[in-house]
Please model this.
Amino acid sequence: MGWTIKFVGIHDSLRARAFSVRDEWAYYDDWAREQPTDVSLNAAQISIKQHLQDDAVLGTPRAPQVSLGAMDRLFDVTQ
Model:
């Protein structure tokens, strides 16, 4: 039972982190403009950035995450 809870918690944490990272790529240009130093990219990096940004903006939105209340705290302990 303990391992099952741990694996469900890991899966839930990975999904939440993936959503967070995808959301951050949608606002990369805003972040780069706010940096005190110039954030310049080469051609390969621009291609990768554009692909990740398009995936974040144009991709299918993630289903809303269900809050499990006390289970969320349990998942935090098992990580």
Remarks:
- The chain has a mean pLDDT of 77.
- Helices lie at 2-26, 28-34, 43-58, 70-78.
- Residues 47 and 59 are 17 Å apart (CA to CA).
- The two ends are 15 Å apart (CA to CA).
